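[Meeting: bench + compute handoff]

Bench side (C.D.) handed over the final construct sequence. Compute side (W.E.) agreed to return the predicted structure before the next meeting so the bench team could plan truncations. Sequence as handed over:
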Amino acid sequence: MVGQPREEGRMSVVLGNPYAWLLVPLVVFAGWKLPALALHRPLRAAALFLWILILSDPQIPRIGAGMDLWVLVDRSRSAESRIEPLLAEWEGLLAANRGANDRLFVVDYAESPLLRENTAERNYPSEMSRSGTRSGLAVEFALARMQRDRAARLLVLTDGQSTDPLDRLPSVLQEREVPLDYRLLPQPGGVDYQIAELRVPQRVLPGAGFLVSFDVDGTLDGEVPYTVQRDGKSVGSGAAQVINGSASVQLTDRLVQPGIARYVVEIFPAEDSVVENNKAEAWVEVAGRGSVLLVTAYPDDPVARLLRSQGMTVDVVNEPRTLDSGHLAGRTVLMLNNVAAQDLPPAFAEAVEFAVTHQGVGLMMGGGRQSFGAGGFFETGIGELLPVSMEMRQDQRKLAVAMAIVLDRSGSMGAGVDGTLTKMDLANDGVVKAIELLGAQDAVAVYAVDSSAHVIAPLSQLGADRGELVKTVRGIQSMGGGIFVYTGLKAAWDELEKVTSGQKHIVLFADAQDAEEPGEYMALLKEITDAGATVSAIGLGSDTDVDAAFLRDIALRGNGRVFFNADAAALPQLFAQETVTLARSAFLDEPTPLSGTSGWLEMAARPLDWLPAVDGYNLSYLKPGATAAAITTDEESAPLVAFWQRGAGRTAAITFPVSGDHSEAVRGWSQYGDLVQSVVRWIAAEDLPPGISLRTRRQGDVMDVELFYDVEWGRKFINTVPQLSTASGRDEPATHTWERLAPGSYFARIPVLPDVPMSGAVNIGDVALPFGPVVRSSHDEWTIMPQRITDLSKLSTASGGRELADFSQAWERPPARSLRSLLPYLLPIFLVIFIAEALVTRLRAGMQ
């Protein structure tokens, strides 16, 4: 129905004290009976009139004519198919009923709100996530942009399934005097089954049994098959009997190892109109403060036996590629024992930095041929946490290096990264980094490859021409096509084969989604390795990409290393790791005398009788601010045991092997156990002091964090506010602001991204209270919960709004409860008239 434009209301004056006007007849009577008062004089009469008006406290509405209508349009995936056919008609009705002084604003929202610049433009940008219905955020977004001097209403067009809580909005809308109306979309038709709720405890003790329960709702009674998986393995299956529209399923489980377990429940109805709500997931943390996560290259690592004999809980991982951020949950110590950086998944390696600096997890690295610089930890996040550095110094070089770099310049490398650089630019930066790290005696050749190999720089010693070569490399451009791998490797080897001495190495860089032309690569790599040369591969992408297995096989057959990273910005770092690993004596396998230092007593209660020598060690250098507990006795005085504090956590390095090859002397040492357990106990996080606790709870797409503390902690917080930080995926850690809702508690509400684990911590000086990781599934968006519609209805009623059936009522002006007093304007006028009257009276008296 198309209505007529509304007639605007007129501004009215409200008297705060109307009884003041009872003085008017008294003043008239006094002026009549007492002529000496001269109340007939214009200025005196005006002053009396104004004074009575002031006493009556006149007020006017704070808002002027016209109204602003803010329409919030749900553009989430779950609402998309139902709202699109109706949107043009609904918005047309709203525009037709608008008054002359009214204004219409439209906000499209899903995971994020976006104000339309043109109300007729209905395209929600594809780069905006539709995996949530954040109605609460959209309301706050609109409120922040409203003009306070204009009447306003909110109208939400939605399916009513808000994935963020609305509990904090009623008081805000009431204070702003903005009613919230809503119009629900038609309910989806057909038979639908869904997992209404999956319930698991957020945290359990190791070995304690607990319930995994979930509800299955359906529009038709019947049998619905289900499966329950924990970390990808089945722990239950069966059929839920839906009766009267609902079924409840319960299973018991028990977790022993500290960390995080991921539960996924899925149903398989025979008939279903919405399949997106057939899966739900939840994570359970197994409390394990005091536990050690030992990531090791050795299946029967003696370090594990040693620490267990000391009463510590040790979880051993021999397959580093299986690690994720959940493995760090509840840990006290992470120990990397002769594990290469390339074997750690990027997501796990990135999570380590936050776990140490914010959550207080201790980090320890043991030596070996796959550790420190030899393991590719130079210029990595984990390397930055360690108390030793792994830079390359010219006096610790191997034989001269002859390196050929085969560089992908296919069409995919022309893609932009941050608006100013392309993938090709960052790959060029990686080659430049390698050139800068090599010495003057080293030789480099650079090839840019698409469907053929193009010589950018023929093999030549760097010498004094390094600057010119860097300039040439930075000019490499993406030229289209794909990368012909065999052609590039063959061109590089044809050049390196001529070198008669030194170490020969090829670095292949390629897009892991677009590495073409394997050719006779196996035979070529055998020829290369038979000649003593090596080949490494750097893949732009993940290790699951279509050509990742091909690149991995090249590195394996080439006796080299393989790196994968989907972040093009990390390419310079990967080239740096590869160059340093290749070109320096990172691991020295000769017996080396050592001596202890006084620094040991900062870590342990009693001194050690150090063994005479170690069988080998990773050459490194003590960082400024770190402490060495043992050093070599040669001219290097290289650190063998070092430690320091990093944020909330502590880290340590034992640069000689404590397991496997070159550890015989150490393991035969009588105080071997004292060394390892003393270092582990020092870096382990201390027990949480009493009087403080943390509670977390996820509600849809937000996490509520509450910090409770007693009087003693309250005194500390006078000068120190607890810091709340979170890390999600590859984003930089974020710091959040607390609210003080009551004495003895802080509160914060944090958004949770779909399908991205979020870890967090509260830091108070050296004390860390970790939580997470927490994961929100993108399937949550499709779950239909009647309570969500009830919450929206309650919010609307509390604000003075209603469910809107007729769009012509959308422009109904809300009653103005906030009034502006006119006293600030009337008092100055009264004073001017009063002073003028006094002056006139004095002048008349002076003239008589």
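W.E. noted at the follow-up: DSSP finds 19 helices and 45 strands in the chain. C.D. will use this when planning the next construct.
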